[in-house]
Amino acid sequence: MMLLAFLGQATQARASWWMPPNASLHGTALDHQLIINLWILFGLFMLAHILLFAGILLQARQQPQPLAHSRWRFELAPLAAIAILFFSLAIWSAHLWASQRYTGTDPAAMQVEVVGMQFAWYFRYPGADAAFGITRPTLISAAEGNPLGIDTADERGRDDFVRSQLVLPAGREVNLRLRALDVIHGFAIPAMRVKQNAIPGQTFNIHFTPTVPGDYSILCTQVCGLGHAHMQAVVRILPSADFAVWLKQQKAPPAEGQP
Amino acid sequence: MTPPSPLTSRRAAKPPGRSSSTANPAPAWRRPLAWTDHHYLALGYLGLSFIAVAVGTLLSLAMRIHRVWPTGSLLGASVSPEQYLALVTMHGTLMIFFVLTVAPQSGFANLVLPGQLGSKDMALPLVNATGFWITALALMIMLAAFFVPAGAPIGGWSAYPPLSAMPAAGPGQGSGMDLWLASLAIFCIGSTLGAVNTVVTVARCRCPGLTYGRLPLTVWSWLTAALLTILVFSVLFAAIILLSCDRHLGTAFFVPSTQWVNGVVTHRSGDGSPLLWLHLFWFFGHPEVYIAVLPGMGLVSMLLGNFTRRRIPGYRMMIATTMLIGGLGILVWGHHMFVAGLNPFAGTAFELTTMAIALPSAAKVLNWLVILWRSRPRFDTPMLWALGFVSVFVCGGLSGPILAQPALDAYLHNTFFVVAHFHLIMAMAAIFGIFAGIAYWFPLITGRALHERLGKIHFWWTLFFAYSTFLPMHLTGLAGEPRHYAQLDGIAGTAGALVRSTLPLERHITVSAILLGLGQLLWIVNVLHSWTRGTPASGNPWNATTIEWAPETPAGCTLVCEHEPCHYEQISASPITGDAKPHPQWAFEVSAE
């Protein structure tokens, strides 16, 4: 009966069998690398199974140990080939990793702070001065429109504004400054091919360039408590002209009520 | 699975002693201090694992059903999000510690290690028995976590702080988490005692002629896993102590000086980092994977040699790869932390060590394929499990090089792609190794064979539904589905749509998992039936060459080892029709006296 219930529901959801379309600049090369890897390793999987089945099903040789005399050919040479293959994949992909993570962001990049807390993401924009003000945990009060505890005594913080939706321009690099207030959260935008944990007490920076306007999901990917499955947000990528309009509309507090 | 009479009756006919001292014909359980007898401890360990695997499997099925039917209720009780996370945490903990560590390492080593060494007993019986009872206590404490207020912990088996350090961070993180930590601290002590016993036994209790180069690969695996156990469980033990101090003594090893949890601000002296826990935990956690799977790899090598009636080519290289896997295993922990705050340069370094560990594993697979090439082996049930092990090990292992690349892991980390990877390589492969071991050594335990046809049906059923359950998880993982989500349906917005899109495959996975679980009833029926009513097995039913199958040592003789295992001589022109003659490792020499 349960089986029927599952099958009944199966038609309602739109099925997904593959990665969501990439919407970031670096994602194209990453997708390419991933697909090449999947094909190569699927090929090795098939090859191993063909050899396994052939080995046990083909007629046995007269000698009890048909391959023992030439282990070099059948064991060490393939092993060397696998070593070369795996390290080639590793080095190729290390270049991708280096281009994303070894270097800091472009100085002209858009700066946004991402703060995870049980069970929401907040996004702080630095305002016109392009600098983030000091925050104090004792000042945190979502009810008063200050969910991150921005200290207005710090001048840099007075024009900071906080949103619960991440809005970014297309075609401009963005640097996300990741923090967490309470426990570890995992910040992930599958469509941007971006993932980084946010850890209390530390700040991490990731940078990427969104390319395709649209709304994309932000997920928490590190179990963070009972509401983990509901800790999501949306990143809205706007064409740069629209983003300029949006930015002009934003003003410092109140932080709530705006997308 | 209480120790029944067949064990003792078999022992009466064929006592465990390999030396000339056959003067003690009393059944093992009637001798004084029989509770230190390694046979009983082996059955005890396997019994603990059976309890843990039964509970762990039921938890996983409850999880699977809840994922696709979040509004449904099981036995009249609906599952809340925190209960779902408690199911995940306890499933992982029970399976990894109490099944995959206990059964292949403590269970099988106690069962046959002395036999394979030609020794009467383990080296340190009292340490051995103490280790067992400590492990049993740990299991009881772990299961007790379900029954405290707010229930079992919810932070996953890796228990990242501050979630695990702050009782206020969630339900289950209070007394449930304390019990979890206490249980694992005790478990660390128990497994270390067991591992010390294993190492000393291998070092001191080998029969004459059994050099290190002639040890069966199972023994090499147990030795390597035991050395890893001593090394890494001590690190886990220390980490647990530090985390307990953070929880109860106000220290700050794993939490920063200022914490904001649920609106409450707390200050501590000192400024710790959750990353320290990640480093300590994964320094333990990754070698733990090899502790779980190495005994299976050793057993598979021996079974392939046994059932193809062939020598294992490159025996010394197989020993070397076992040691290499163990050695490299302690250098790869950072690949769990590529996007968890690890320095990006360290990410590249751990990428290279992780790729390096793929090579000894690949060498083992190539070796297995070479043994099997044009072999027409005998397809007895233990051999089927060994072949199944090769298949799922290859399948799960090959996604390793993908996840080893930080750039790709930055997309795949903590998705179901990872869940598929580790369930195939360590859960399924290690479980296949356990099934292989039980089928293979069942005659040694009970004097009877498992029912072959039932065993074969169980094997094919398990293989099919294991793939049917875990292969589609690669696809939901590629779609971006994260782990630890209590709910896939009913989430608003674009994120909800992304998560919901995996539901059709999720339903397929759940149905497969239920059928996979149901299939295991076949095995339980088989064991229960064969234990008492199975076909009596001959002394060496598989034509094995390792010493645990040696007949009783004749009076006045000493058992000696003559060569490596898996030496066979073809006695028929056609190896298909005729069987080969085993040249066992053992021989009996008349004692000098």
Give an account of the 3D structure:
The complex is a heterodimer of chains A (259) and B (593). With 259 residues, chain A is α+β, with helices and mostly antiparallel strands. Chain A folds into 2 domains: 21-49 and 71-103; 110-249, Immunoglobulin-like (Sandwich), CATH 2.60.40.420. Chain A contains 4 helices and 10 strands. Chain A has helices spanning 2-10, 27-57, 71-101, 240-249; strands at 110-117, 120-125, 161-163, 166-169, 174-180, 185-189, 194-198, 204-208, 214-220, 232-238. In chain A, the strands form 2 sheets. In chain A, strands 3-2-1-5-8 form a 5-stranded mixed sheet, with no helix packed on it. In chain A, strands 4-10-9-6-7 form a 5-stranded mixed sheet. Chain A is elongated, with a radius of gyration of 25 Å. Chain B is mainly α. Chain B has a single domain (33-590), classed as Cytochrome C Oxidase, Chain A (Up-down Bundle), CATH 1.20.210. Helices cover 61% and strands 5% of the residues of chain B. Chain B contains 17 helices and 8 strands. Chain B has a two-stranded antiparallel ribbon. In chain B, strands 3-4 form a two-stranded antiparallel ribbon. The relative contact order of chain B is 0.11. Mean pLDDT of chain B is 90; it is low at 1-30. Chains A and B meet through helix 1, helix 2, helix 3, strand 7 and strand 9 of A and helix 3, strand 3, helix 10, helix 11 and helix 13 of B.
